[in-house]
Structure formats: C-alpha cells, structure tokens
Amino acid sequence: MDKVETTYKRLYWDNGSTMYEGGIRDGRPNGYGRMYDKESKIRYKGDFTDGIVSGKGKLYYDNGKIEYEGTFLNTKKHGFGKEYDRNGILKYMGEFKTDSKDGYGKLFNNTGEIIYEGYFKKNSIDNMNVEIGEDMGTLVLDKKENEEKRSERVKIEPEIKIETKQADIMSKISRKREEVKYDKYVQTGKGSSAYYPKEKIIETDYSRGKVFRKNGTLEYEGELTDRKMHGLGKTFYENGKIQYEGSFMYGMIEGNGTLYDVEGNVKYKGSFFENKIEGSGKIYFKEGSIKYDGELADGLPNGKGKKYNSKGVLKCEGRFEDGLLEGEGKEYYDNRTMRIDGVFSKGLANGECRYYDKAGKLRYEGSLADGRFCGYGKIYYADGKTKYEGEFKDGIYSGRGKLYYPDAQIKYEGTFNYGVPDGKGKLYDKKSILRYEGEFKDGIPV
Questions:
Q1: 235: pLDDT confidence band, cut at 50, 70 and 90?
Q2: Which of 139, 204, 342, 359 has the fewest beta carbons under 10 Å from its own?
Q3: In the 8-state DSSP scheme, what is residue 174?
Q4: Is pLDDT above 90 for 4?
C-alpha cells in the first residue's frame, strides 16, 4: 500500500480521557476524526484540515443529540446543513454562511411542518427575496418531461455493503483460541504468522494483516488495531477484485477512500462516514466519466454539487437534497448552453427563474410552479422583444396580461383564459389603433 502522511492516533485531555481520535498529520488533526469533551462525550465527528474543523461533519449537544450536521469552513457552519434542537427535532435545513442562516432554507415547527421556506440573510428572513404562496412557481416543461424529471435521481447505494459482517467477524475473534480449531493463518506486519479459526481472525496492535473468508478468499488487507480494521486498508470481493480502498476507523469505513464495483470500475471516490457515502466526493459512470461532483449524505447528492451526463457535459449545478436540485440552481442543454437559472424544488424549477433557448437567448423570466409557468412572468421573442407579460396558470396565459406584436406594439390587453382572450379586453391593430373594447369569449369578441 502506498505510504500516506496521515496516521491514526489519539490525543488526550490532562485528566487522561480521550480528546481526539482520528487522522493526524504534522501533529494536527487532518482528515476524518472525532472530538470529545473531558467527560468523554462526543462533541464533533467529521473532517479536519490542518487542525481546523472544515468539510463535512456533525456537532453534538452534551446530551448526545445532534446539534448540527452539514458542511463547515474554518470551524464555522458554511454551506448546506441542518440544525436540530436539544430533543433532536429538525428546526432548519438550508444554506449557511459563517455560522449564520444565509441563503435559501426552510424552518420547521416541532411537528415537522414547514413554517417558512425562502431566503435568509444573517439569521433573519430576507423579505426582499422571498416568495411564498400560490404564485410561487418554477420552470415550464411539458407534462411528460416533468414526470421524467420528478423521478430522476442519482442512483447510488445509500450504504456501503461490504460482504463481511463486522459483528460476525468480532464474534469469531472474541472466542479464546484454545476453544477453536486452527487450520489456516493470517500474515501480520511483524513478519510472523498466527493461526486462526476456520472462518477468520484478526491480528491487532496497528500491525498490517490479512483477513480471509472461510472459503480461503482474501477479504481484507491493511492496518488493524484493537482487533478491528483501523487505519488504511482494502476490502475485496470474492472474485479477488478490490471493493474498497481507503480509511477505516474501528471497524467502519470512515474518512477518504475509493469504492469499486465487482468488475473493478470506480463507483465513488471521496469521503465516507460510518459506512456511508457522506461528505465531498465524486460518483462515476461505469465507463469512468464523472456523474456527480460535490457534497453528499446517505449516498445521495446533498448540498452543493454538479451533475453530468455520460458524455461529460454538465447537466445541472446548485444545491441538492436527496439527489434532486433544491434551492438555487442551474440546468443546461446538451450543447452546454444554460437552460434554466433560478430556484428549484424536488428537481423542478419552483420560484423565480429564467428560461433560455438552445441558442442562449432569454425566452421567459418570472414565476414557475412544478416546472410550469405559474404566477407573473414575461415571454420574449427570439430577438428579445416582449411577446407576453402577465399572469400564467399551468404554463398558459391565464388572468390579466398583455400580448404584443413582434415589433413590440401592443396587440391585446385584458384577461385571458387558457391562452386566449376571455373576459374584458382591448384589441389593437399593428398601428396601435384600438379596434375593439369589450367582452371576449374563447378568443372572439362578443
């Protein structure tokens, strides 16, 4: 295994209790680690950089409940995260900047209901940007495309399922050696051999070793301590291919590493937390191109990131929640031009957005709901002149609005119903001369 500067060690308080355990480089916490108070209560789990909390992690109250989980920058909450009260109830989910709620987010009450969704500025609701109510919309597509987008997710297993069950391994090595029959052995880093039971056994004390399955196939190779996989190592499929290569902590995959499929192709490269894909990393297509690059939680894009198609072209970027765009984001056409720039919810444009054609020209700006024009907005001709401005419903002119000729002269002003004049209105000719004022029915003056 290649030499790595980071080692796994423990630091202690003056009372002898553990203060820190995890990666150490140049005498300072680096990589994944855990911080404890003097009463041995966990207070932080996650990433460190040169002794500073930075990256993905979790803060804990003194009662053991999670206080915050998300991303940090220079010890401060920064990026996407979740805040909980002392009872473990989610209170806020969204963006942070230097320890403050800042950006797009959601507030929850004690029963889990959303009581506010919108923008924040330094822990306060930003009333200049928020849109709440029936007119909160998002970008328009046809019904079929909306359904496709709604079901689209980055498909990655939420947990790293290593074929070996750690609990089973530990139960085997906890038995006294004189009580079992030895017929195979494990090579240790000390140059010696130790016999082990018919299934498997692990040698300890930071020595390097190998663990074999009952059928004789190699299961693990790497560093060990306290009879657990700990430090740097590799796990293997029964066909001999590498399954995982990277960091372990007390029998669990934690820290940075690479996950492979059974054929040897890289599936994921990045950080892990308690046997799950969490932190920052990259998901790959089978042929090797990047599928997603950014922050993850429970194996799904969560936080800031970018998604690509199999040809390496950027599909979308922004904030993700459970694999789908949530909050501010951008979508792109296959020709790399921007398609949508705005606010998303559950993968669909929802809120104030701008929509562009494949030539990069702005064709719509305004409010959308579930991917359809809804609320107030403007549609533009290809040359940038306004074609329609007013109210929409289900992606169609509905309500008060104005329709214009291609030369920007007004054509109709009044009420619309499902795309045609209906109700009171005014009709003009191309010279802006009023031709009719009164009632319309299904687009026809009456």
A1: very high
A2: 359
A3: T
A4: no
Residue 85: which residues within 8 A CB-CB, separation 6 or more? 91
In a 10 Å sphere around its CB, with 0-12 CB exposed, 13-18 middle and 19+ buried, how is residue 430 labelled? exposed
Find all residues with CB under 8 Å of 14, minimum gap 6, and list them: none
- For residue 221, the one-letter residue type is E
Residue among 392, 426, 396, 395 nearest 409 (CA):
426
Give the residue from 378, 383, 423 showing the smallest Cα distance to 402. Answer: 378
Please answer whether residues 361 and 333 qualify as being in contact, where contact means their C-beta atoms are separated by less than 8 angstroms.
no
At residue 197, the 3 state secondary structure works out as: strand
Classify strands 372-380 and 18-25 as parallel, antiparallel or unpaired: unpaired
Give 362-407 pLDDT, tens digit per residue. Answer: 999 999 888 889 899 999 999 999 999 999 998 899 999 999 999 9
Which ranges of 34-158 would DSSP assign to H, the alpha helix?
Answer: 143-151
What confidence score (pLDDT) does residue 44 get? Answer: 94
Amino acid letter, residue 40: S
Which residue's entry shows tokens 């553990």? 18
Q: Give the DSSP H or E segment for 173.
A: helix 166-173
For β-strands 314-321 and 324-332, DSSP reports them as: antiparallel
Measured in residues, the chain has a length of: 446
Sorted by sequence, the CB contacts under 8 Å of residue 27 that are 6+ apart come out as: none
- What's the CA gap between 231 and 56, in Å, rounded? 19
Residue 172: in which H helix or E strand, if any? helix 166-173
Residues with Cβ within 8 Å of residue 140, at least 6 apart in sequence = 349, 355, 364, 368, 371, 372, 373, 395
* Among 346, 292, 296, 299, residue whose Cα is nearest residue 314: 292
For the whole model, what pTM was predicted?
Answer: 0.59
Tokens of 369: 């709901």
